[in-house]
Amino acid sequence: MAIIGIDLGTTNSSCGIWVDDGVKLIPNRLGDLLTPSVVGLDDKNNLSVGRIAKERLISHSDKTVAVFKRLMGTEHKVTLGNKQFTATELSAIVLRSLKEDAENFLGEPVTEAVISVPAYFNDNQRHATKTAGELAGLKVERLINEPTAAAIAYGLHEKQEGTFLILDMGGGTFDVSILEFFEGVMEVHASAGDNFLGGEDFVEAMMNDALNQLKIQKSSLTPQETNQLLMQMETAKRRIGTKEQQTLDLHLGKNHHEFIVTDEWFSKIATPLLLRAKRPIERALNDANMSPQAIDDVVLVGGATRMGIFRSTVGRMFGRLPSCHLDPDCAITMGAAIQAGLKSKDKALSDIVLTDVCPYTLGTDVVNENTNEGGYFLPIIERNSVVPISVTRRLVTAHDNQKQMRIGIYQGENRLVSKNIFLGNLTVDVPPAPAGKEAVDVRYSYDMNGLLEVDVKVESTGKTLNKVIEQSPGSLSPEEKEKSRQR
Ligand code: ADP
Ligand code: MG
Predict the structure, then answer these.
(1) What is the pTM of this model?
(2) To the nearest 5 percent, what fractions of the chain are helix, strand and coil?
């Protein structure tokens, strides 16, 4: 029984396995290493996955869905034909397809997997990913942060030692990590990112600007027209840098429009997005207390790092060209497969130790003692703490004869909880006493998979409560996620 490593991407997914002394990437039933993360219904209402589904995105847009990884961890339902699916269910369909392909390729059952997630995935999103694996019939041995996986691939596969800055821009997410690999030990120094920045955003920005220039309302387009336009912009994006001017023939409404795409135009469109990409890079360097010169190797992974303008922007920041000698599409899969090899206790990997960090601060809400105002954020596990980690903080009652203490659980970097992400709460009864006399010990435990567990113990009564953070209903809008990342 095999354990495979899976990169469950926003745009593309792939899998691999550790064999003897290296990673074998597993082709799907069509012979491709990448399986588009697209799910659809065919004419007989059977599920289709990957390239077959992707090819019908335009012609059957009401029966095809893509980029659902962005909805992971939310209750949002996507309609496909006359059925509704959560992002977890759609991801499970992709995972099941990868599992079947791996079983066919390997000729044995595949029951376990290591699945990669963006470092910035919060608790809800990680739980959703794990659940998706289970729905697909896979025991999810480990969730591995994508940049960590990429660094493992570079560090172990290429047998390089030193400090790496990993930049991973895929279709919908951007992750930055600083890791050090030395004498068999991989240590993560910092990780930062933007969950809402990826290659698709460049395409979207191209489309919006083109529609603006043509004075066409986006809302006036049919889903088919929008998809067709996005496809044309995608193709044009990949041709940028050849210096050739491209003339696109856009069919919108009853009209044909000619639209000229030049490198200069693309550069104007890309600049605000590249500026956004700089922020997490600077934050990671700052958190790791490193200058750009201290980085031995800047590693690019993810399809969107193929953009010439991305490479030159990074090149300017670091004063040298970034590394991309592993295929940017496969580096994460390779790392996940190495982690799977570690799990299956492969001898060639027995000397390797991995550490990882918590990518965000986790804490609770407290009352300011001086002003008696509530809503202040008390960090319990600081961002970039090495995991697994368990931290206990003692909290006391704020009012005389207080009957209950409510422990709000939050994730974020702001000193006000209202600006952070609410993850859940625990309420315990406390015996009446003067303010400050009753105390609870609040323990936050964050594990290797990036999952949070909170225990609360009332000191005087010994009563304990426990919560594994699983969901935060309605609190996961993109704005809120973005908010929690701002310092
Ligand atoms: P994910 O990790 O989100 O599944 P990938 O790493 O597969 O994504 O990257 C997908 C993104 O890479 C898409 O937005 C695609 O447009 C972009 N991409 C792939 N190849 C190129 C290229 N040659 N030039 C520019 N962008 C590219
Ligand atoms: Mg990716």
Answers:
(1) 0.74
(2) 35, 35, 35
Q: What is the pLDDT along the chain (487 residues), one digit of tens a residue?
A: 789 999 999 999 999 999 987 899 999 999 999 999 999 999 999 999 999 999 888 778 889 999 899 899 998 999 998 889 999 999 999 999 999 999 999 999 999 999 999 877 877 889 999 999 999 999 997 899 888 888 888 876 666 788 989 999 999 889 898 988 877 677 778 888 887 899 999 999 999 999 999 999 999 998 889 888 998 999 999 999 987 889 999 998 888 999 999 999 999 999 999 999 999 999 999 999 999 999 988 999 999 999 999 999 999 999 988 877 788 889 999 999 998 988 776 555 655 556 677 878 999 999 877 777 889 999 999 887 888 889 999 999 988 999 999 999 999 889 999 999 888 889 999 999 999 999 999 999 988 777 889 999 999 999 998 887 743 333 334 444 344 444 3
Ligand 2 centre distance from Cα of residue 148 (Å) = 12
Enclosing H/E stretch for 228: helix 223-239
For a ligand 1 pocket test, name from 116, 238, 312 the mutation site with the most ligand atoms within 8 angstroms of its C-beta. 238
8 Å CB contact between 373 and 36: no
CA-closest residue to ligand 1 atom 26: 304
Give me the active site residues, please: 7, 69, 146, 168
CB-based neighbours (< 5 A) of ligand 2, an ion: 9, 170, 302
Each domain of the chain, given as residue ranges in start order, spans 3-197+270-357, 199-269, 362-468
Does 146 contact ligand 1 (Cβ within 6 A)?
A: no
438 Cα to the center of ligand 2, angstroms: 48
Q: Which CATH number fits domain 362-468: 2.60.34.10, 2.60.120.920, 3.40.470.10, 2.60.410.10?
A: 2.60.34.10
Among protein residues, the one with the nearest Cα to ligand 1's atom 8 is: 170
Sign of the C-alpha dihedral, residues 458, 464, 470, 472?
A: negative
The SS3 assignment for 216 reads coil
